[in-house]
Amino acid sequence: MVETSAKKWYVLHTYAGYEDKVKSDLLSRAQSMGMQDFIFRVVTPEETKVETVRGKKQEVEEKIFPGYVLVEMVMTDESWFIVRNTPNVTGFVGSHGGGSKPSPLLDDEIARILENQGVEAKKPDIDFEIGETVTITEGAFDGMVGKITDIQEDKEKIFVSVDMFGRATTAELDYDQVKKFDGNE
């Protein structure tokens, strides 16, 4: 099983009008190629508009980002290959070419988009308490052990006091950058 903190949202560029086809193809490819632990959700953001057609008002679904599809995935060489080689996908937004992997969307960007779609963005369920000892798993303090001094749920931040050069230093971290200290580290 893949660590869920590695899941990020990416933007795919597709041929216009093929967004729904790319969505269904990508989900079936993930299933048939055993990549369900790497490719999770695929979203084509839409909004309902009222149009008048032949004198009658109709509700129609209109793509918010025509030619683009959002995919939640863990970026590995294999998942990247499968996604970019899905029919009608022309590439990832944020990739600089030459085989470089793309940049993911920022958490607040995807949260805003998903909220407008009525889809719940991943809300981390935290199981931490102030005073608890944790291990930092990412960033400049990777591998260090410290105590939680503050939790800001609204910003999804944890503040951890670590010992650096004999002094207490506070690190501001995202929820997915720490794990419970198990004593074996």
UniProtKB/TrEMBL annotation:
One of its GO terms (biological process) is regulation of DNA-templated transcription elongation. One of its GO terms (cellular component) is cytosol. Residues 6-117 form the NusG-like N-terminal domain. Coiled coil: none annotated. Pfam families: KOW, NusG. It comes from the Bacteria. Residues 127-154 form the KOW domain. Keywords: Transcription, Transcription antitermination, Transcription regulation, Transcription termination. Participates in transcription elongation, termination and antitermination. Belongs to the NusG family. This is Transcription termination/antitermination protein NusG. It comes from Lactobacillus mulieris. The lineage of its organism: Bacteria, Bacillati, Bacillota, Bacilli, Lactobacillales. The gene is nusG.
